Amino acid sequence: MSTEEEALIRGIAAEEKTNVPGTNRSGRWKQREEPDPYRRAKILVYNQLAYSAKSRAQLQKKLADKGFEESLIEPLLDKFEAAHLIDDAEYAHSFVEQRGKHKKLSLTALRRELKERGITGELAEDALAARTDEDERQDAAELVRKKLRPSMNFSDRTEKEKIMRRLVGMLARRGYSSSVAFSVVKEEIERYRSEQEEDC
């Protein structure tokens, strides 16, 4: 979602609040007055989208958690989709790009996080296809390089194995397979040692 679209949604959300019967201009509900459930649900969706992009499943869960009936939720979200304010395909691509870039998550971890947000099947795989195995390996290597320090004693076998286990564990927590993790850690440690020796 672009900055312009986010600003538009925030503006709509603010306008909806001031136009709902039973509210004052701050958007607070007046006592003893029950707002129309459909309007209240619509405001909730606008506010959620104004905060950050959401998948349909995330909004569906949010509305259900707030006690709205499914018979209200589904047609409401259908209208948001028809207006292109909810777009799971766009959301999935943006999510993979941002989480892959900033968190350096593996494809496995990204697939799991998409599933948690209700994005599965073809939608998920299309978004994940933008990242290659080489991208994943480069990200893993970058994570390892950031953890390497001159104070680490790689000449001591016990200490080296301890460092390797810690680095492999770090990659595993981001969803990297054991084979990729061990391979990348070993390669980056050897590269680091060679560079250190050249600097001496």
UniProtKB/TrEMBL annotation:
Residue span(s) of domain RecX third three-helical: 135-184
Superkingdom of the organism of origin: Bacteria
Keywords: Cytoplasm
Keyword ATP-binding (UniProt): no
Boundaries of every RecX first three-helical domain copy: 42-79
Gene Ontology cellular component annotations, sorted alphabetically: cytoplasm
Span of domain RecX second three-helical: 87-128
Cellular compartment(s): Cytoplasm
BP-aspect Gene Ontology terms: regulation of DNA repair
Region (Disordered): 1-34
HAMAP family: RecX
Function: Modulates RecA activity.
Entry's family note: Belongs to the RecX family.
Name of this protein: Regulatory protein RecX
Organism of provenance: Rothia dentocariosa
Gene designation per UniProt: recX
